[in-house]
Amino acid sequence: MNKKELLEGPILSSLLKLAVPIMIANLLQAAYQLVDAFWVGRLGGDAVAAVSVSTPVIFLTIALGTGLAIAGSILIAQYFGAGQQEMVNHVAAQTLLMVITVSVVLSIIGYWLSPYFLQVLNVTPQVYSDALGFMRVAFIGLVFSFSFMIFQSVMRGVGRVTLPVYIVLGTVILNFALDPLFIFGWNFIPAMGVKGAALATLSTQSLAIVIGFFILFRGKHGIHLQLKDFKPDYKHIKKAFKIGFPSSIEQSMRAIGMMAITFLIVHFGTTTVASYGAGSNLIQLILIPALGLSMAIATLVGQNIGAGNIARAAQIGKLGGYLGFGLLSGLGIIAYIFAPYLIAFFVPNDQAVIEGGTQLLRITCLSWGFLGLQLCLTGVFRAVGNTTLPMILTLVSQWVIQFPLAYILSHNTSLGKIGIWWAFPISSVLTGLITLIIYAKGDWKKERLTGKTNKLIDKVEKEIVKEGFESVK
Fold this sequence. Notes:
Blueprint: H1 3-8, H2 11-40, H3 45-81, H4 85-120, H5 125-140, H6 142-157, H7 163-184, H8 194-218, H9 234-265, H10 270-306, H11 310-346, H12 351-364, H13 368-383, H14 388-411, H15 417-441, H16 444-450, H17 452-472
Helix pairs in contact: 2-7, 2-8, 2-10, 2-11, 3-4, 3-5, 3-6, 3-9, 3-10, 4-5, 4-6, 4-9, 4-17, 5-8, 6-8, 7-8, 9-14, 9-17, 10-11, 10-12, 10-13, 11-12, 11-13, 12-15, 13-15, 14-15, 16-17
């Protein structure tokens, strides 16, 4: 899309042109997890539980790098729009260098600490071995998943939103073929069970980033990296940390919240853990359209705030909020009707897990619209440079509302595990309403001109431009 469309074109079509490719790419990326869940489900409830208890820990490590990716993508998009190609290349290379370094460190620490994570989660002996194998292979693959995440951010920043779709589509198809080979074995390939699912994903993601690096170094798609761009620019890295740190905290708190909920769930047995795993797979899936819409909203609002089109930015936020609420509410109604069949897709041979997952889904799905509303409106806040407010909203949702409520309802009432399920919709509705009130108050409209957070970011960005050109020279 060209800049004129973003600033003057019809809002709905502009949102959809940006959001749809992002949604498709994110859906395909999530398909790695869904494909693994499909094949692992054929191994039974214990295998599903092994993946379920591992996922929050892996998600936590990935979340730590997400803020850095956000900081890089913001700067890349800004410099690309300003026609500063040398800085686009410089920032992209430095962001890759930074995130790869972080991923290697996290990979080593995570691999070593995996047994301790599972002990803290109080994993049952039947699940422990499979969970450990899955977790350790996943940690080895962090460098590939981190790198491809940055590749996608870079491509979005330079307007090539469809290119990652083709790469992910090919690797998901390959992953679907490799999963049964590595899980169940074939000919000279040994059966590796749950660990095989993680190994299949690692193999395909490594192929994806090789293709990604080839594209970045070839220079035919709006960006051209060279080895000199990877010379460490410590001042840029330090300042990018300042921009991305609140988002890292936000994503990390989401992951730690998932771990805390898992800690509560394991006390109710393997069947409950497996039910949560099957249900949460679907919940993560329905969030993807809202996340894609949130990214598109952030792009449109950011462009228009920068151009001084405050009224248009407000219209984008309002329309985006309606779309997010309506889209996820519709998906929630569909999920309520077809819940048993959706859960059975992942765990076809375990009736107890199907019943438990159906119960979880039906308790939570009718509140999904409020999740969509929150995600879309926080996209507006990020667009004006306020990454602190989404962080605070996440902390309130996870640690002030959801976890305390889940603990109280499951331990101090007759609800038991059902109390944990009810904590999800209650926290979603309350956080969505709080976000709506903050948005409607309208203070975000002033932040680009007078907000302290944005003044700091503007100052940092100007220093990065100056230092970046000096380093390039």
